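Most newcomers find our protein records easier to grasp once they have seen one. A learned vocabulary of local backbone shapes supplies the integers on the structure line. An example says more than a description, so a record of this kind follows:
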Amino acid sequence: MHNLLPNSQFYKTVTCKIFCICAVSLISFSSWAFSYEDVINKAKDLSKKTYQQPSKNIPSELASLQFADYQKIQFNHQKAYWNDEDTRFKLEFYHEGMYFDTPVKINEVVNNHAQEIKYDPSYFDLSQIHLDKLDTKNLGFAGFKVHYPINSPTKTDDEVFTALGGSYFRAIGKNQIYGLSARGLAIDTGEISGEEFPRFKEFWIERPEPNQKHLVIYALLDSPSVTGAYKITLIPSVDTTVTVEAKVFFRTSVKKLGVAPLTSMFLYGPNQPSPILNYRPAMHDSNGLSILTNNNEWIWRPLNNPKRLSFSSYSLENPKQFGLIQRDNGFQDYQDLDDHYEQRPSVWTEILGDWQKGRVELVEIPTADETNDNIVTFWVPKKQYNAGDVLDISYRLHYTLNDQQRYPSNVARAVSTRLSLGDIKQANLIRKLDGSNAYVIDFAGPQLSNKIPVKVISSITNGSIVSTDSQYNSVTKGWRVIVRFNVEDNKKATDIRIQLASEKTNEILSETWSGQYPAQ
């Protein structure tokens, strides 16, 4: 166990035997047998008790920190867990501060025995924020982070996973930087009654064996409405995966339950240009929601930054996967030398088991800057869960810079979406604008060519389609669709669906582009 026993050769044989007996006694009092069933039982027992609001324990000097100052709190890397052991993983911790003002309990599991990792002020350096003299001995950890060498076999300081705040966690793979976040659970997101944020109040982290390539993390979830036991298996790689197995217990009924939630940011992009002049063509951690249905239909929904709270819903039975995707992944798409949005990963949620009937819901929240996560998507079961119910769920998150690899070769993707005034090309020359808008959608895929004529299948709600024109794009080796449309009620969102099909055989050649023109 980490730093539990001193490494001393001073004692002679008899003294050493006495010391070892005492050490064993010490271990028996400070550690206990542990398994995932223990977390399940804790969650079950907790669900039968009245919810207790966690108490905040940090001084005002830490509570008033701005984000830039909070980031200056440095962890002492020499104190990292497993730093002196033959394992590729390293475990470090977050200090309490800012709105991370509630301590979480963190335990290490060794040989099926758990021992709490105690907070120690020496783990952290607060000198950069001039609080190194502050008394912090009674504080705790706000969360933890995991290091693993994914970019170089000899580099051990690659941070690949972090758990901080509520039930949020993030992961990355090779050559990726943090973008969107995952959550343990979402409750009443976007509801007028207000959102409830469950939190992971305790973690158990298995110490990895030498050369082990995965890390197992257990977590206890708590909120006014639910409790939950989570088993999270992290496998860092080129495309890192995080497998989540959870058992959720309901204290009360939940109006809207969000399973496997992903939270991201979309400020602007070609489908919704910046309202102010900006040298960067786009700013977002994700630019679309992708869904694979049970009947193998692929759906692509470009994201928006709406002027008012917006909901989109896709009713499905046992879908195969969904995710928030960063489809634009070239530096030229962003021109940002600081934030490098092209390195933010797409995250696919692979559904494990039968999720039965429900819906994938997308919530888009207005935001004026990139510091706010304004995009949330999750699965909402059709079944209504009430007090005493139990939900078993499992899924796997895939973090990748190449979302295309999950698409079959016979499905063309909408590789770009641009918004324009409807008749602007001709209007510049011969006539006034007719008041319509247009989406310009480029579809690309190996099955598309100028030798296979295509037709456009389209539909619209809250409006009318003026025209749909298709043209072969010799640059992308695909087809460009220009769909012009009029909006009926500007105070409502307008949904448009576009597919490409073979003109000769009617075979569907593309995913379903499911764009939404936001309410104005």
About this structure: The longest strand covers residues 390-400. Residues 1-29, 427-431 have pLDDT under 50 and may be disordered. The domain at 413-517 is CATH 2.60.40.10 (Immunoglobulin-like).
